[in-house]
Amino acid sequence: MENFNYVRPAKVADAVKAMKKAKDGKYLAGGHTLLPTLKQGLAAPTDIVDLSGLKNAGVKVGAKSVTIGAGTTHAEVAGSKDLRKAIPGLAKLAGGIGDPHVRHRGTIGGSLANNDPAADYPAAALGLGATIHTSDRKIPAEKYFTGMFSTALKGSEIVTAVEFPVPKKSGYAKFPNPASLYAMVGVFVAQLADGSVRVAVTGAGPGVFRAPELEAALAKNFSAKALDGIAVKAKGLNSDMHASAEYRAHLITVMAKRAVEAAK
Amino acid sequence: MPAISMKVNGQAVCGEVEGRTLLVEFLRDKLGLTGTHVGCDTSQCGACVVHVDGKAVKSCTALAIACADADVVTIEGLAKNGKLHPMQEAFREHHGLQCGFCTPGMIMAAVDMVKRLGKKLDEDTIRHELEGNICRCTGYHNIVAAVKAGAASM
User: Fold this and answer.
1) A55 CB within 8 Å of a chain B CB
2) CA-to-CA distance for A101 and B129, rounded, in angstroms?
3) Which of A61, A118, B80, B120 has a 20 to 30 Å separation from A145 between CA atoms?
4) What is the ipTM of this complex?
């Protein structure tokens, strides 16, 4: 790993300033993607701006929405009793990311800023229609995820919090790669307060996406049975040593059924 | 090079680090605490698990400088007054190891597990909770038995 300058500012404005000043800076959250990337020499930033000094961890559960600070670890999200009541699917998703030690360090803000195509959180953000709060603005999930490892974040912009609407029901099911524990396919289903249904898929394609054919079937009848015989097209899905595009397409319907069965 | 200080196994320590110095490098190379191992160096295997501010983390995937002022416990910090920690004793008693390379991480993970989930742990829970700790010798059978017994005696 190449060496770098390291700063840990206490305020968002100071973090942005430090990033603007850096020649080739990177923000550090939990570090569970960035540090392995640096070790492999895939990135060699001149400056690391550690966001852990912002101390913005916390889960605030309101009647209509839940706001989670960007620095909240996966373990803290999974462990929030209030969240387990308000959005059980989201708490379950967080409790299934990586392993216990990874969950003690990795953060929701880091995961969403990185937007790994096999990460879990993007499925919840898109599946619930979350709003990403940043140092500059609020971005709806629809406009936030722009492709593989790519988001609407600009330059020195920092994710500060994520706001999720409280749904009627939500559920998440994933088929993890047994070695990496990343999602080969993960499906988040939500029946929102207005009765509309959203289904978001991670791991299967180059980035998180919604599955309109599954949403349409579940809108008529929110049950696993409603998804019988509905096939998702394999075109455009990932095909690699772990699974073919056809297999991933098959898994989407299977995981969607399990997510609906688990939804509460 | 910036100097950092932290508490390791109850003792105040300090040392100079580079920005890129990993917590595990600081522990092993600067402090000589070589009980914490580096297996995969890619945050998969868990041989490097230590406790930072009471939580199990992979010390190969944390910057030492980001752990400045933290309270760190390594495998060396478990035994007290020459007496093995109950979890260490359980690994010895149940032969929860063969080559021993993964053992420090296993034990630190197991102690963290008990802190979070209590002393009564069933086999399914233990196996699930050990997802981040890889052993290439034992097939886990005795490790699971050791964690269960160690948890009960903590």
Assistant:
1) no
2) 10
3) A61
4) 0.96
Touching check for A254 and chain B: CB below 8 Å? no
Cα–Cα distance for residue pair A95/B78, rounded to 1 Å: 27
The CATH number covering residue B115 comes to 1.10.150.120
Structure-token pair, residue A189: 């289903």
> Which residues form the domain of B68?
3-76
Residue A36 has its nearest CB partner, among B61, B109, B131, at B61
Buried b (16+ CB within 10 A) or exposed e, B115-124: eeeeeebeee
Tell me the C-alpha to C-alpha distance, in Å, between residue B58 and each of A32, A51, A204, B29, B44: 9, 19, 28, 17, 9
Nearest alpha-carbon partner for A65 in A143, A109, A129: A129
Contacts of B56 in chain A (CB under 8 A): 100-101, 104
pLDDT in tens, A155-181: 999 999 999 999 999 999 999 998 888
Q: What pLDDT digit, counting tens, does each position of A247-262 carry?
A: 999 999 999 999 999 9
- Nearest of A116, A136, A113, A121 to residue A49 by alpha carbon: A113
Residue B80 is given by DSSP the state B
Determine, for residues A100 and B56 on separate chains, whether the beta-carbon distance falls below 8 Å: yes
Which of residues B76, B109, B141 is at a domain's end? B76
Rounded-to-10 torsion of CA A199, A203, A208, A214: -20
